Amino acid sequence: xxxxxxxxxxxxxxxxxxxxxxxxxxxxxxxxxxxxxxxxxxxxxxxxxxxxxxxxxxxxxxxxxxxxxxxxxxxxxxxxxxxxxxxxxxxxxxxxxxxxxxxxxxxxxxxxxxxxxxxxxxxxxxxxxxxxxxxxxxxxxxxxxxxxxxxxxxxxxxxxxxxxxxxxxxxxxxxxxxxxxxxxxxxxxxxxxxxxxxxxxxxxxxxxxxxxxxxxxxxxxxxxxxxxxxxxxxxxxxxxxxxxxxxxxxxxxxxxxxxxxxxxxxxxxxxxxxxxxxxxxxxxxxxxxxxxxxxxxxxxxxx
Length: 303
What we know:
- Pfam families: DUF6807.
- This is Oxidoreductase.
- InterPro entries: DUF6807.
- The chain has two helices and 22 strands.
- The protein has a single domain, classed as Distorted Sandwich (Beta-galactosidase, Chain A, domain 5).
- The protein is mainly beta.
- Strand 1 and strand 2 (13-18) form a beta hairpin.
- Strands 9-10-11-12-22-18-17-15-16 form a nine-stranded antiparallel β-sheet. Strands 5, 6, 13, 14, 19, 20 and 21 form a seven-stranded antiparallel β-sheet that branches. A four-stranded antiparallel β-sheet has the order 1-2-3-4, with no helix packed on it.
- The two termini are 22 Å apart.
C-alpha cells in the first residue's frame, strides 16, 4: 500500500513522503552562493526503507547537490557551479556562474499513488542576461515494495535572442570529462561501488564515455548491512540518444547521462529543446538493475 503526500514549505522546498518515510526534498529556492550556480536540487533522496543515497555540498565539489539539472558549458556561461574549463588554461574561476530561478508553480498535485511538481524557471547569467525560460515537470510514484520512480522532464526555451550552444569540458578540449545534464552525486560510503549497464558491470574508469540507454549504481551503506541501487534511464527522444555517460566510482559515486558529452546541442533563438529521464531509487543490489530498468522504462513511456 502506498500513501504519497506533499508538504509545501513556501518559497523554499517541496517535501514528498511515502507514509512516514520522507523520500525526497525538492529545494526549488536554494540559499547557495553565486559561485555554486544556485539552482533547484533533490536532497535528501531516500529509498522506501528510508536510506539516503545522495550527498549535498561535498567538500571536494561544493556545487554537487544530490540530484540536479546542471550545465557547465552554455555558450561561455556556467550553470553547473564552480570554475569553468577554459581551452588551453584548464579550470578558471570566472564571473559566469548563472542562476536557475523559480518563477511560479503550474502544478502541485498528489494522490496516494503519484505526485506531480511542475514549475517555470528563468535562467539568468551572472551578468543578468536572460538565457532560458524553462518548464520543468517532475513526478514520483512507488513501483514496488523496494523501489520508487522519479521522472524528470525539462523544456528549455531560448529567450536570449541568439543561438545557445550547450556543451561540456570535453567539447572544450578536456578528454573524457563530458559531464552535464541530470547529475547524481552519491553517498561517501558508495565510493568504489559497482556500475551496471545492460552489457554488464564495471568501474567509472571502465564505463565513462560509453553509450547506454541506462546505467545504475549499486552502493553499500555504513553502519548497517544494506545496499541501495540508483538507476538513470534516458528517454528515446532525447538529443544524442543513447547518451554517453559521465560516471565515477573510484573517486566518488556519480551518475550522469550526458547528452553534451562530446557533441554540442545548439538551440536557435526562439527555439526549444526537451530532455526526459527516469530515475529508479531502490533497496537493492547489482542483480536487481535490469528489472528496475524495465520498470523505469515502462513508467517513463507513459508520461
